[in-house]
Design a protein that fits this description.
There is one protein chain. The protein has 235 residues and is of the alpha/beta class. 51% of the residues lie in helices and 12% in strands. It contains 9 helices and 5 strands; from the N terminus they run H-H-H-E-H-E-H-E-H-E-E-H-H-H. A 5-stranded mixed beta sheet has the order 1-3-2-4-5, sandwiched between helices. A hairpin with a 2-residue loop joins strand 4 and strand 5. Helix 2 runs antiparallel to helix 3. The radius of gyration is 27 Å and the shape is elongated.
Length: 235
């Protein structure tokens, strides 16, 4: 991500106090306003001083403009898709199968009259914008396969290297709630979206805690007290 831009995952942990908040990066607009205020607040009258302020103004804004343009260039360079594309049966091979040679393609099969389909497709719009290196495509299920049953909708078909690597029927059944984070997590579990190392460690720790709920939860003195009682009872 660009300097100063944080993920939703990081923002949550900052609020919880798990991470330190990143230092705020001054934007081009803020630098421009700062330079303007400096000139307006200055009481100098000499031409030399005014020339010096103007040069400083140009330097501040010039550097920030270069930085801004570089960040925009980096965004465009890495941005392949960034939206959910509607696809027809005639376009299927080109837009889905062949496109998956360069990365993951997630096909969402839906029906307009199934509420879960609409909710999930709306969430995919946000996810597609955040993960522009993944291609998200949607199709009406029966236009993809004439007899596709409504009971399997919404359905994700995930392609990679021109092959189907995963099929998730009734996607909402994999989710506790139909939310951005739930769908994002599901796609991470399928390997479509890369997990951050810190996130991996926390998930592993939570899974370990579920398997062994009493591990590392020993309260000092309690176990010794229980042992003393048992010994006294035997006497």
């Amino acid at each position: 991500m660009a300097n100063g831009v944080t993920s939703q995952w990081e923002d949550i942990h900052v609020k919880l106090g798990n991470y330190e908040e990143r230092p705020k990066v001054e934007t081009l607009g803020e630098a421009y306003q700062k330079a303007l205020e400096k000139i307006e607040q200055s009481e100098v009258q000499k031409d030399d001083d005014l020339d010096s302020l103007e040069r400083e103004f140009d330097e501040i804004c010039g550097d920030k403009l270069k930085q801004y343009k570089l960040q925009e260039f980096e965004k465009k360079k890495h941005k392949k898709y960034g939206q959910v594309y509607e696809c027809s049966r005639e376009e299927y091979v080109r837009e889905i199968t062949e496109a998956s040679e360069n990365g993951f393609v997630v096909l969402s099969l839906y029906q307009d009259y199934i509420e879960e389909s609409i909710l999930i497709n709306n969430i995919l719009i946000e996810i597609a914008a955040d993960y522009a290196d993944v291609k998200f495509v949607k199709m009406i299920a029966t236009k993809c396969s004439e007899n596709f049953p409504d009971s399997h909708v919404p359905c994700f078909i995930i392609y990679h290297k021109s092959k189907v690597v995963s099929t998730l029927q009734m996607v909402h059944k994999y989710l506790r709630k139909i939310t951005y984070h739930a769908v994002e997590y599901l796609l991470k579990e399928q390997g479509v979206i890369a997990k951050e190392q810190q996130e991996d460690e926390e998930i592993d720790e939570m899974n370990e805690q579920k398997k062994n709920p009493f591990k590392n939860n020993r309260v000092q003195g309690v176990d010794d007290e229980v042992k003393d009682r048992e010994y006294s009872h035997k006497i």
